[in-house]
Amino acid sequence: MTELTGTNNQILLCGSVAAPPRLSHRNREEDFYIFPLEVQRLSGATDVLNILARKRLLEELEVEPAEKLRVLGQVRSFNNKSGVGARLVISVFARELAFASGEDENLVRLRGTLCKPPTLRQTPMGREISDLMVAVNRRYGRSDYIPCIAWGAQAHAASALHVGDGVSLEGRLQSRVYLKTMDGVALEKTAYELSLSHLEQVDPGL
């Protein structure tokens, strides 16, 4: 399988299929399926990420639960206007799939533009964290909007950025479960974000 290249949106994952693929949608006479992939962190925690793939990719492999897969693709966002579920839906669009073995992997490289003012805050444990929203250009004038978080010294560096600044990012795509109270009822939700290991300001025109 191809390794990460120099394009502005690349993700490489290696993990275990958690459930059978199911039909997501149909576009231009082509079926797209979605399935969850479990990717273990070095800490032992597990991220559960949604993989979106063309039907033909899945037919070539006959993917089954518990099998280990290596996924090369792009981080994608979808603006959900249905009123049900998250408004910003994050998934991984698979360009290549292959059976795998060995250690789990989770590496993302993005290049984009800051589209909201960063927010610097502290976690309940006292760690400093900065929230960012980065727009990554796609073909045909479209963009993906990727939530990102930076920690410690990188959080301070991120908080000094401005809307329109270009950034080059590296990190891992993670899932985070949290509770949200709606009409007095606590509901379990899942957020998806890029946890940064590297952040660099770049020329947004390049």
How would you describe this structure to a colleague?
The chain is built from two helices and twelve strands, in the order E-E-E-E-H-E-E-E-E-E-E-H-E-E. It is 7% helix and 62% strand. With 206 residues, the chain is mainly beta. It has helices at 55-61, 152-159; strands at residues 9-17, 22-27, 30-40, 46-54, 68-79, 88-99, 105-114, 119-122, 128-137, 143-151, 166-182, 185-202. It folds into two domains: 9-105, Beta Barrel (OB fold (Dihydrolipoamide Acetyltransferase, E2P)), CATH 2.40.50; 109-202, OB fold (Dihydrolipoamide Acetyltransferase, E2P) (Beta Barrel). The model has no long low-confidence stretch (mean pLDDT 91). Strands 1, 2, 3, 4, 5, 6, 7, 8, 9, 10, 11 and 12 form a twelve-stranded mixed sheet that branches. A hairpin with a 5-residue loop joins strand 3 (30-40) and strand 4 (46-54).
What is the topology?
Layout: E1 9-17, E2 22-27, E3 30-40, E4 46-54, H1 55-61, E5 68-79, E6 88-99, E7 105-114, E8 119-122, E9 128-137, E10 143-151, H2 152-159, E11 166-182, E12 185-202
Parallel strand pairs: 4-6, 10-12
Antiparallel strand pairs: 1-3, 1-5, 1-7, 2-3, 3-4, 5-6, 7-9, 7-11, 8-9, 9-10, 11-12
The amount of beta strand, in percent, is over 45%
Largest sheet: 12 strands, mixed
Q: What is the string of SSEs from the N terminus onward?
A: EEEEHEEEEEEHEE
Shape, principal axes of CA atoms:
globular
Task: Please identify the top-level CATH class of the largest domain.
Answer: Mainly Beta
In the CATH hierarchy, what is the superfamily of the largest domain? Nucleic acid-binding proteins
How many domains in all?
A: 2
Structural class: mainly beta
Rg for CA atoms: 17 Å
Could you give the count of β-strands?
12
pLDDT averaged residue by residue: 91
Number of helices: 2
Q: Indicate the percent of residues in helices.
A: under 10%
